Each structure stands twice: as C-alpha cells, then as structure tokens.
Amino acid sequence: MRRKIVAANWKMNLTLPQAKELALRLNTWVKIHKPVAEVFIAPSHLYLEQMNKDLRNSSITIVSQNVSAMPNGAYTGDVSAEQLLSVGTKTSIVGHSERRAYHHEVNKYIGKKITHLYENQMSPILCVGEKLEDRESGKHFDVVREMVSVALERQSSENLKQNLIVAYEPVWAIGTGKNAAPDQVQEMHSFIRKIIGEQHGLQVAHNTTILYGGSVNAGNASDLFDQFDVDGALVGGASLDFDEFTAIISARK
Ligand code: PGA
C-alpha cells in the first residue's frame, strides 16, 4: 500500500543524549498533533536499540541508515539485517548516495542488501538519484532506471508488493540547498513507478511508496507533496531542527 511518510535521516549527527532529546520531543509532538504522515527516524546504528526502547509505545518508526550485503561473518564494522532485527529495527535505508560515493556501493551489491532484508522479513528504503553531470547530459532517466531495475531484479514481486519504499534523491540536491523543482520530481517519480511496473507488474508499482529527498525544508515541502507521485520525503539537514522538521511533517496532508 502507498503510504505517506516523512523520514528523518540524521546521518552521522547528534550524540546519544542529543538524539534521545530530539526523538522524545518529536514523540510528544506526534502524540499531540497526530499527523497524517507516518514519521520515521534513522539515527546512528549505535542508538537503534536505545531508541527502539525509548519509543516503544510510539507511532514513530526507528529505521537504520544502512545494512550489510552479507548475512554474517568476518566483515569488520558492518551490521547485518539479522542484527538490526534483534534490536527491534525492521526497515533500513539502502543505497544512499553517500554510501555509493564514499563506500563505492554499486547497484548489484545494493540489491543483495535488499535480499537480506526481505529474507529477515524486513524492508528497504531504496535510494536512487542522478548526479549533476547525468542530468546535464540528459542521462538522468537512464541512470535512475539502472539503479532501480538492477537493485530490484532479483527480488520477489510478492515481497515488493508488501513493502517497498523508494527515495528519489538527486545527488545535486542533497545538502546543497538546491532542491529539484516539483515538476522535475513528479516526472522522475512517475518514471520510477513505470519502471517498477514494467519489471514487477502494476500492482507492485501501485503499492510502492516513493519519497523525495534533497534539501527538503519547511518552505518547499508542500509544493513537493502536491505532486501526484510524491508520497513523502526523506529529510537530511532539516530533520535535525525540531521546528523545521515538524513543519515538514505537517505539510504532508
Ligand atoms: P538533505 O539530505 O535533506 O540534507 O539534502 C537528504 C538525504 O541525504 O537523505
């Protein structure tokens, strides 16, 4: 089912006390305001267990920023799907552009992460998005097609139908203050839905939740959310600011 989601990607920010304080403030706000959108928070791996405990009775979902492509073994510093699940985390971001850029993650490898998540009855938030040079040379659709289709080619349509979230995050808009125009976002989201439909059928395409990410803030959120194929947002910088983030959540009607 397509869901309305506003997700915070805290990246490598906040100490444990800061993260707890912000999460508890958001929890109180969500209880009072009962927003239409589901709220997700992706804190550091280190805090997942604690935050799952702190927000045990909350409607906020705690998700992971990353997961290993391997099930277990000698992979120093990595965290497996099974380990995430053992601390109560059932969803993970995969393929974020910062993982692709700084850790050389490629589409096939990202697909393996998704497979491990589904094997553990967990689910992915698959991030895709072109670089500035791809857009300027008119290759953005080809690049995004490759990212989506290779990551999803080995997944079962049944799993995808139950639970698939994709985040379209053009690299040139992440952390730059330059967000994509609403019509550019709509065009790419509907393209992503079309590719998923061609690969896995219309039912999967119809059920997929597609978030936009890249310099989303309180000022531009509602124009983005007005687009037919934009189901919500994945928010980096602005999610660290309580007022800004809650304004974005409220914009998702
Ligand atoms: P940004 O990051 O909102 O700071 O641009 C978005 C993301 O990387 O998920």
Question: Can you describe this structure?
Answer:
- The protein is an alpha/beta fold and about 250 residues long.
- The protein has one domain (about 5-250): Aldolase class I (TIM Barrel), CATH 3.20.20.
- The chain has helices at about 15-35, 50-55, 80-85, 95-105, 105-120, 130-135, 140-150, 155-160, 180-200, 200-205, 220-225, 240-250, and strands spanning about 5-10, 40, 60, 90-95, 125-130, 165-170, 210-215, 230-235.
- The protein has an eight-stranded parallel sheet.
- Helix 1 links the parallel strand 1 (about 5-10) and strand 2 (about 40).
- The longest helix is centred in the C-terminal third of the chain and has 19 residues, at about 180-200.
- It is globular, with a radius of gyration of 17 Å.
- The two termini are about 15 Å apart.
- 2-phosphoglycolic acid (PGA) binds near residues 9, 169, 174 and 235.
Q: Total domains, how many?
A: 1
Placed side by side, the strands forming the largest sheet appear as 3-2-1-8-7-6-5-4
Provide the residue-averaged pLDDT: 97
- Helix and strand element order: EHEHEHEHHEHHHEHHEHEH
The class by helix and strand makeup works out as alpha/beta
What is the CATH C level class, in words? Alpha Beta
